[in-house]
Amino acid sequence: MILIRDATIVGDKIIQGDILVEDGRIREIGKDIGEKADDVIDAKGKIAIPGLVNTHTHVAMTLFRGYGEDLPLHEWLQNKIWPAEAKMTAEDIRIGSLLAYVEMIKSGITSFNEMYIAGINEMKEAAEEVGMRGIVSLGLFDLIPGHSYEGEIKGMKESIFKPSELIMPAVSCHAPYTCSKELIGEAGKFAKEKKLKFHMHVSETRKEMLDVLKAHGKYPFEYLDELGVVHEDSIFAHASWVTKREIALVGKRKATISNNPESNLKLATGGICPVKEYIDAGANLTLGTDGAASNNSLSIFETMKLMGLLQKHRYWKADILPTRRIFESATVNGAKALGFDSGELKEGKLADIALLNRDVNLVPEHDIIANLIYAAEPQNVNDVIINGKLVMKDRKMLTVDEEKIKKDAEKTAKELVKR
Amino acid sequence: MILIRDATIVGDKIIQGDILVEDGRIREIGKDIGEKADDVIDAKGKIAIPGLVNTHTHVAMTLFRGYGEDLPLHEWLQNKIWPAEAKMTAEDIRIGSLLAYVEMIKSGITSFNEMYIAGINEMKEAAEEVGMRGIVSLGLFDLIPGHSYEGEIKGMKESIFKPSELIMPAVSCHAPYTCSKELIGEAGKFAKEKKLKFHMHVSETRKEMLDVLKAHGKYPFEYLDELGVVHEDSIFAHASWVTKREIALVGKRKATISNNPESNLKLATGGICPVKEYIDAGANLTLGTDGAASNNSLSIFETMKLMGLLQKHRYWKADILPTRRIFESATVNGAKALGFDSGELKEGKLADIALLNRDVNLVPEHDIIANLIYAAEPQNVNDVIINGKLVMKDRKMLTVDEEKIKKDAEKTAKELVKR
Fold first, then answer.
1. Does B66 touch chain A (CB under 8 A)?
2. Are B77 and B199 found together in one domain?
3. pTM value?
4. Domain count, chain B
5. What is the mean pLDDT of chain B?
6. Strand pairing category for A198-202 and A171-173
7. Whole domain around residue B158: which residue ranges?
8. Are residues A109 and A225 in the same domain?
9. How high is the ipTM of this complex?
10. Are residues A170 and A294 in the same domain?
């Protein structure tokens, strides 16, 4: 039982009060809760927000942060990232994941959605060790040399583990241009049967959008819809290069879009996701950092700010997207996308909470939500509770040895690229 | 005398060593400097960088952080910002400035370039109290009701104070569309006579660029060049809406451009400054945060990242702008623009230095400059030295009472908008 005392609580309304956490959930929110708790956190002067949700990432890629910078995109992938990834062991993935989880928690993120080429168990176990909530899945692709439809289907089935309190499995197809029609159809069917989320990269670049159009005679979301994978349990990352008809379709299906603005700019995809139009169409709009290799940090505060800035820029309209919509994208919409009963500070919800200090960058407080979107930085994250457990206090991790994780990651990353 | 021991020193090369600071300057950089210093800073595991330079800001506007968010631009200015600014007292400006200086130092900024409508002495004195280096100037405009050519010339002359060790005066004209030809010409002449920097907003919006073209038959930089103000001692903020001929002209004159990407996106100006082209043309490219009301934080780390991301985006080219060029924009180019003998960690230079911790977001270190541009955040700034004096240690200000500054700013900001 944890009692958070006298915080500014960011719910539908902003109130000053206490939060009582019991058995992993928010039991009560109110004034002067008298309950005797094991742990009392004096949150006077602090801001309590729902933990942020990162709906698209590749955690082990922290090992490639800043590796091969300043190269043309193609050269970076072919000569740097892909060869290094091919040499990664499961243990490397475990080490890179631990680093990512700690980095995310230190920037207020409490849930993540992962897709990677290997190391499913290691990513899951590392998340449980850190105490982080998330989805871990294997990214399938059968149109790449060395991969086959049968092999991918087998890999998919093997990758589905028994859900734990914190970590859920999912089904992920890499992208429409790397997966056959048959693989996407079958994976989608399997996900439905097993009641699992379906996760995919779509229309990150213009070329990829046009390639799908050429190969299948349809725009990517129309093609995917025919294969039955555009629905409420699907999460599509990027989705920047889309037609208005596709936006309407995604909205009608109530599918989730994961907007990854840093990565889109960093990889020079030329695309700015039409976030505002997706929201208006009825899609579930959420935010992702993508992997650290194409960002190069894992901060949803930065992502929220950039999402807002780029929408203003894209439409030449300063009031295009209210700050509340952006905040929902990073919290309740993200939780809904991943199927977690969290993302809001409400009685009965899972207790995933970040407490922020009011450092100089959050003063004055004319508008607390505007401050959270456009001024907050990871430095403001003071304490983090996930699933009712305090995992970080005063910016120190309580569950794992941060220094060891940093040392292991540094050593592993340097060795890996020299192998 | 301060001895920084065993830091990773980011100079032209990256070396591991000590920095000896004496009489405000870097006396020696080397291995195991034996010198007995008053203060020894154990910088093992830390990164020493030149303090970052913010070449365009309005410090007192921290008081309007998040005020009138989510409004159309015109309404925000007319109904919120301008009425509130009109009610500001010199004391309000002092309080807002103190907040900005502390925020900047906490994100590794050691020099700033300020233009504002009043409160010159207060901004200067507050900076000296905090121990920050900078330029403080009055923004002139005679085409706005209530202002006249004569009044502005008088105001300009009165605003020029005796330079102190840390703070220099300058001459600032607000913008080509708010100042008469005569005012710009006269102010420019005065700045040259007094050997002061000349500072101006130019071509922030498309409309403003076209208005100048309509009124004077010339594009803004061509018009300003005729008035004699485009030269090595001029700093032009924004300059996003420009022709290729103007870029060539600015380059030829070796003038300084202050790129303010957050502000440009936030105010939905539609413009992305063609940074890469300015650099290629020979201009001195630097970075600014603009005021906190249109950003809403004051972090040059964020600005460096966004500058890089937007150039990649603008030109659809991931390798358009090497990280070293971005780092120079935020350090040595900025110092050069402001006329300070700092911005580099070299023997003999002014000792403006930030020491960064290697928190998880800076691990691994494949490329230290890439980490500084794309992964570093204010949380990484551990200690700051300005003019040879330690002003922040372990993220605590040593020169001023941070809590009092926050409290005063909160109270002042709330009262100000209700007056």
1. yes
2. yes
3. 0.98
4. 2
5. 97
6. parallel
7. 52-338
8. yes
9. 0.98
10. yes
